[in-house]
Amino acid sequence: MDYSLLLLAAVPVTGFLAGFINTLAGSGSLITLPILILLGLPANVANGTNRVGVLLQNIVAVATFRKRGALETAGSWKLIVPTVLGSVLGAELAVDLDEALLRKTIGALMLVMLVVVSVQPGRWLAAHAAGKPGNIWIQAPLFFAIGIYGGFIQAGVGILLLAGLVLGAGLTLVGANALKNLIVLIFTTAALIVFVVNGQVHWGLGLLLALGQGAGAWVAARLAIARGAKFVHWVLIAILVLSAIALLGDFSL
User: Fold this and answer.
1) Burial class of residue 92 (count of CB atoms within 10 Å of its CB; 0-12, 13-18, 19+)
2) Lowest mean pLDDT among 92-101, 106-115, 153-162
3) DSSP symbol at 241
4) Which residues are CB-neighbours of 139 under 8 A, at least 6 positions away?
5) 222 — phi, psi (to 5°)?
6) Among 33, 85, 80, 72, which Cα is nearest to 54's?
């Protein structure tokens, strides 16, 4: 059996699942990055290519949330600006990193995210009451750091943003999820430009992935978060374990 053709056929399906997961919570890139690497893309090119699908997915998600009146943007520039600045720096770091080292770094980060999504999962699966808005002097460096991570590697940034928006900015989980998609849309555009300029985007696979992710985002944005949260949580754990093993074990087809 030609496993590379099987993986290629799985790209849009994987994209759909990633778009669905990213829109509801985050970490869909933990599925798409390994697929792109297993298809033979160098880790740095896979990292850049992955942003194409993320971009379309968030365009669809943001448009849907806005249409349904679920997106509140008042004062969001205070969070968006430092995140975008951080993402440009993170993307520049990823572009210049040795391919083999980046591959190992991605695998290690997946293990870190495994701990994040496994410890006290109820915190991320249940709605939160809005707290007091955070201090700008705390929010700015926090979201700058999240931006660096998101620019460096997209995988898992949705969970970090949700944590920052709920615990650092005082939003409800529902409101944070909608705003998260807008922030990811804007900083992904900035990061993608960096990867394009450095020739680290495979447009064929990126657009194929984008078709699936756009469809997944469209479906997910219309579903109640609670209905899919527990399923997403366990899927993420399984994917994190398998992906980390594959990447740290230097497996490829």
Assistant:
1) middle
2) 106-115
3) H
4) 78, 79, 82, 164, 168, 169
5) -100, 0
6) 33
Q: Which tokens hold the place of 203?
A: 């447009």
Place of tokens 């770091």: 93
What Rg, from alpha-carbon coordinates, does the chain have?
17
d(CA 66, CA 80): 17
pTM above 0.70, yes or no: yes
Q: Are 40 and 143 in contact (CB under 8 A)?
A: no
Other CB atoms within a 10 A radius of the CB of residue 98 amount to 11
Residue 13 pLDDT: 84
Q: Which of 107, 95, 48, 98 is nearest to 251 (CA)?
A: 107
- Measure the CA dihedral 235/149/214/179, to 10°: 100
Distances, alpha carbon 231 to alpha carbons 20, 44, 139, 142, 167, in Å: 12, 30, 31, 29, 23
Written as six digits, the tokens of 216 are 């997944």
Structure tokens at 196: 């394009």
Q: What is the pLDDT of residue 251?
A: 47
For residue range 67-110, what is the model confidence (pLDDT) as tens digits? 877 777 777 888 999 999 999 999 998 888 776 777 677 677 76
